[in-house]
Amino acid sequence: MKFIEVEMEQWARKKHYEHYSKHVRCSYSLTVEIDISGLLTGLKAKGRKAYPAQIYMLSAVANQFQEFRMSTNEEKRLGYWDVINPMYTVLNRETETFSAIWTKYDSCFHRFYRACLEDATQYANGVLFPQDNLPPNIFNISSIPWLDFTAFNLNVPSQDNYLLPIFTIGKYRKEKGKTLMPLAIQCHHAVCDGLHVGRFIDALRYMAVNWDEWL
């Protein structure tokens, strides 16, 4: 992994970053629906589980766009990671608590899928962070498969300047023969605007529709 510092004086977003990180500290969230009808059909045909595939899709798209890899290093210098890895929640049904597990991102779905299943099997013990030495280049994904929502917000104090995105997946719903997956996205306005979220959603929807290109 590599952290690339932003040349602040040369950065087009300098004023935007300063405004939304110092003066009007602002994060925002929005919820969209992703049509995963074809994807679920493909997963069923190939005997694959949906959650690892969803984690892969979010990871693949997040790694396409610099705005979703922005962070600060130990010296509080702004920059972006060359690659980010997903940390995702897995429920322990006996204790009804969850573990937050991370898996190294791999652009090959098949390798990532296997690694994700292995990590989930090994570490889903209900301990919040069961793995040692968490890397700094991780972003968060959680799933609430019991609840279909149209809006969702996490109250992360904006003064902490947590810049990486947070994704929350909800319970599917059926509409006119389609299966729709609610997805909440939380971003920091200092590094990510609606334009960038729109690009992210377009790329994610492309992956969902064209699942046969990578599944």
In short:
This protein has a single domain (28-186, 203-210), classed as Chloramphenicol Acetyltransferase, CATH 3.30.559.
Question: Would you write up a description of this structure?
Answer:
The chain has 215 residues and is an alpha+beta fold. The protein has a single domain, classed as 2-Layer Sandwich (Chloramphenicol Acetyltransferase). The protein contains five helices and ten strands. The strands form two sheets. Strands 2, 5, 6, 7, 8, 9 and 10 form a seven-stranded mixed sheet that branches. A three-stranded antiparallel sheet has the order 1-4-3, with no helix packed on it. Strand 3 (70-72) and strand 4 (78-81) form a beta hairpin. Helix 3 packs across helix 5. The radius of gyration is 17 Å and the shape is globular. The model has no long low-confidence stretch (mean pLDDT 95).
Produce the secondary structure layout.
Layout lengths: L2 E3 L8 H10 L3 E9 L1 H10 L3 H13 L7 E3 L5 E4 L3 E8 L4 E6 L6 H15 L14 E7 L21 E5 L2 E3 L2 E11 L5 H16 L6
Helix pairs in contact: 3-5
